[in-house]
Write a structure and sequence with these properties.
This protein is of the alpha/beta class and 235 residues long. The protein has six helices and six strands. It has a single domain, classed as Rossmann fold, CATH 3.40.50. Helices cover 36% and strands 10% of the residues. Bound molecules: iron/sulfur cluster. Iron/sulfur cluster binds next to α5.
């Protein structure tokens, strides 16, 4: 089964590269995105790979960036938030204001993730993500291919039907580098203050923004209702 999925992944990526150039892969540097990064770089596909450095990432994520370069001889592009946006955010809600409300948390994600994402996607016809349906209740409708109306380009999710086991089987088979926090019980890894290891019985994304309810747990990168307005910090 996994052989079929690996072949299908390669076929999907090759077809999209021909049909929807230019394409970019938005990598969170999580396990799924490392599968996609490995295939893009090993096959030398013309896909620009980027990640978002929010300024609050765990040290292990920066080490993974170095390991990607050591393994593949290529650096992936890194997008930072605008300094003025971060300064305004901190003035309004302090360094860790995101713990106080969903609105404050989304404001932080808006400045540190969503606004840089908009810059990173400019000029591309499609973006590839590592979303899987069984990651969380908010992702059960993820399609392999859909129009992203909020961003105005195609959204491609080639791992939509993959399981976590299939992702890790690929990583082991191809000796793909991955974030060391996965070995400490972290399933989904984002910013350091907003991510923790899973506890027994928890679902994959329960370690992200664990103080919130499951249905609010998206950072804005994958919400169709996203608008530029949502990326601004209101006074
Ligand atoms: S995950 Fe946390 S620290 Fe990172 S951008 Fe969102 S609220 Fe801010």
């Amino acid at each position: 089964m996994s052989e079929e999925k690996h072949a299908q992944l390669e076929a999907d990526l090759r077809a999209w590269v021909m049909r929807l150039p230019p394409l970019t892969l938005a990598s969170s540097l999580g396990a799924e995105d490392m599968v996609l990064t490995d295939m893009v770089l090993r096959l030398n596909l013309p896909v620009r790979i980027f990640t978002l450095d929010t300024g609050r990432l765990p040290e292990s994520t920066y080490r993974l960036l170095d390991r990607i370069f050591e393994r593949y001889g290529q650096r992936i592009d890194v997008f930072w938030p605008e300094a003025e946006g971060v300064e305004t955010l901190l003035q309004k809600q302090g360094a860790n204001g995101f713990f106080h409300s969903v609105e404050a948390r989304r404001a932080c994600c808006g400045v540190r993730k969503v606004a840089p994402l908009h810059r990173a996607l400019k000029g591309y016809r499609g973006w590839i993500t590592g979303l899987r349906r069984d990651q969380s209740p908010t992702r059960q409708e993820v399609m392999a291919e859909s129009w992203d109306d909020s961003l105005g380009l195609m959204k491609l999710n080639p791992l939509a039907t993959w399981s976590s086991d299939e992702v890790w089987a690929y990583i082991q088979r191809h000796q793909v580098p991955y974030n060391a926090l996965h070995d400490q019980g972290y399933a989904s890894i984002g910013c350091a203050p907003c991510t923790r290891a899973l506890r027994p019985g928890e679902q994959e994304r329960d370690g992200r923004w664990w103080w919130e309810q499951a249905l609010t747990k998206e950072c804005g990168l994958h919400q169709s209702a996203l608008t530029e307005e949502a990326t601004r910090v209101k006074a």
